[in-house]
Amino acid sequence: MAKKKGGFGRFLGAITGSPYERMQKQIDKAIDEAGSDRALAKTLKKMVRAIGEQYENENIDEEEHDLLIEAIEDADPEGRTFGKLTDSSDEFYDSGEMPDSPKLKLGKRKNLDDLMKAQGNEFVGSFGRDEFDEFKRTMAADFYADSDDAIAAGDHNAEIRTQNRVFADAEDGIDKLKKQMAQESGLEHHVEEEEEEDENYYVDDDDVEWWRDDDGYWWYREPGQEDWQPHEE
Known about the structure:
Strand order of the largest sheet: 1-2-3-4
Strand content: 5-15%
Largest sheet: 4 strands, antiparallel
Number of strands: 4
Number of helices: 8
Order of helices and strands: HHHHHHHHEEEE
Mean pLDDT: 74
Structural class: mainly alpha
Helix content: 55-70%
Low-confidence stretches: 1-6
Radius of gyration: 44 Å
């Protein structure tokens, strides 16, 4: 907000009859001659636009502009506020009241643990986060325990063998974990079905299809044919 001009500045305006002084007199006259609060509010709103035009025409400076707006705000019966040049708003004269900033709806704050919890719409198997954390803790505990024993015994080679064994156990555990994931997701069953289908059906180099029925008999179908023919050995 611009700093209000002191009495000396107003005195100079009165002597020179500047646009600022004339606008100030118009404000005082509107206040004295207003027949009602409604009429005064309407007149002051028009004067806000007039002050803006005076500034755009370079008849008054920024400080004078804001001082005149403050005088209107002080006299406004509706208690409105209007845009000043020191405000960050882009609108000065389009509306009688400056709109309030929209309130952001931030919602309820959540901590990290709440965000990591399952929401109910994702796939969750028995190989969840808790099981994997427990697996890592077990592997780490075994590694440090065996390493401490090797160091205490003074056997550096034993320490190396211990590390290799622990990491080998960890790899075995990971393989088991992957296998368990495949079983629970149905991937392993699908692979087994494909393997079974490969044993009972294939296409040879001549593009002849071969198929073995449930009784173990083979059938073949040549390219371009629709019917299967029994294979006679």
